[in-house]
Each structure stands twice: as C-alpha cells, then as structure tokens.
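Supplementary Text 2. Reproducibility record for the structural model of the 186-residue chain.

All settings were left at their defaults, and a single model was retained for analysis rather than an ensemble. We include the record here because the model underlies the residue-level annotations in Supplementary Table 4.
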Amino acid sequence: MPLSEPVERTLSHTRQVSCRGYKRTDGLWDIEAYLLDTKSYDMEMHEGGLLPAGQALHEMAIRITVDLDLNILEAEAVMDHTPFRMCPSIAERFSLLKGLQIAPGFTRKTRELFGGTQGCTHLLELLGPLATTAFQSTHQERQYLEDWHTGSTPPPMLNSCHAFAQDSDVVKSYWPMHYDPNKNEG
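Retained model, structure tokens:
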C-alpha cells in the first residue's frame, strides 16, 4: 500500500540504511549495518570545499560478530565519508560493543557508551537496526535450538509488539502453550 499522494515537492536529502546478516562457516554470525547520506544539491562544506550533489556526505558502517545468544564477540566501525575530518577518530570507540549482549537493556547501554560526545550520532542510530538484524538473522536457528514449541521457554518476542501480544491470534496459532486470552484485558 503506497503512501498518499504528496503535494509538489523537491528532494533535498536521501538517507539509505541497509543491514545484512551472514552465517559464518565457524557457526558465528556477522551482522553489518551501512548508512549513506546524500544531498540533491551542491553543498558548501564547513571545512572548505564543495560536496557535489549525489556524493556521500556520510558513509559509514558497523560490523559485529555474534553467537546464537547474541553476545557480541567482535565489533568494528568505519567512517569513509564524513563532513568533518575529526569524525573518523571516534569509530574505534565502537569496539566497546564487544562483550555486550543484544538483549533487554541493549539500547540503554549503547546510549550510555556512545551518546553525546562519546560517540557518533549516525553510528549510534545504526545500532537499533543492527540489533534487529542480528535477531532476525539468527531467529530461525535459535528457534530450532530452544524449546519454544514445548511450552517451557516462552519465545523472546512474546509481548514485544501488537502481533506477538500474549492474547493475539498469532501467539494462539504459533505458541498455543503461551497464549492467554485474558492477558491484556483491563
């Protein structure tokens, strides 16, 4: 379903974010997030020079390596294009992701580590889709290894959104042992 017809307008800025998850031959997973910002017009740069329309204003990426418990075993960030020469010097700080687990509290912890002057706004913004991609990439394999279908362990996405509410038809169909039609009444 497309969005409604907009009023006449002119493109100013494009941000492209892409994320990919790869299963490695050693059983671990590489998750990569990439960000590209471009302008539709020539832009004067603060440190001198002209950025031609369509050229990268921001181009950066993060790669993490995780296990099936979503423990981050390795992390690296790169900043190939930035508006200021000093920006890439903060990329190495994102190696502090190593040792964290993508689990409840992950977003709070990453904001503590990389918020404000301790990080880069753009790389910090990539961590949300990066974490979701890690979860989605490993989901099927984790599902088969865990006992979500036997009833003893609830699936981690239970009550994480409208479709996975404990009283939803989706939960009733996929995980009937975790279905509770009265859970969200009141």
